[in-house]
Specification:
alpha/beta, Rossmann fold, 34% helix
């Protein structure tokens, strides 16, 4: 079994403009490509687990999402930082597009995407790390049995207001990876 870092996409990997469904709106955050490379050098599989309700809302299509995903992987390739697995949920309970209207097991905070990644990539979730920018990301990690939770980004106050989750906060993915490299963050 492999240890992994499971990452939300928008707000963790790329700038979150809200419903990023086109290449023109996709912008890697500064230092992310190198951070992903460094995670791989530390022996972690890297896996994206992302809600993409913009598909259900009719704002972009699955083909648009796949084009953005291919573009992301192309941007990361020169850094030897492409993802080992990419999982997305196109559903939403109040979807405008009827085919995607459902209360599913894959939409975070449900654990479906993480459990699918575990099965397909032979992941040891207990010794893995979930990195997200919202509580729903961290709750999905807990539900899937991920042993370590990391919050990044601008929603720290929202997360600190709750008491049911134990997580570590960093301003962004590069700061977290730096802490992992220098030993100031030690996963279980």
């Amino acid at each position: 079994m492999r240890k992994a870092v499971l990452l939300d996409r928008d707000g963790v990997i790329n700038r979150d403009y809200g419903y990023v469904g086109s290449i023109a709106r996709f912008e890697l955050l500064e230092g992310v490509a190198q951070a992903l490379h460094d995670l791989k050098q530390l022996g972690y599989a890297t896996v994206v687990v992302t809600n993409q309700s913009g598909i259900a809302r009719g704002m972009y299509t699955e083909a648009d999402y796949q084009a953005v995903t291919s573009h992301m992987q192309q941007l990361l390739a020169p850094y030897a930082a492409t993802f080992d697995g990419i999982y997305f949920c196109p559903h939403h309970p109040q979807a405008q597009v009827a085919a995607y209207r459902q209360d599913c097991a894959c939409r975070k905070p449900q654990p479906g995407m993480l459990l699918k990644a575990q099965a397909e990539l032979d992941l040891d979730l207990a010794h893995s790390i979930m990195v997200g920018d919202h509580l729903s990301d961290l709750r999905a990690g807990v539900s899937a049995g991920v042993g370590n939770l990391v919050l990044v980004g601008t929603h720290r106050a929202e997360a600190q207001a709750q008491t049911e989750l134990t997580f570590t906060y960093y301003p962004d993915l590069p700061h977290f990876v730096q802490a992992l490299q220098n030993g100031s963050y030690t996963p279980s």
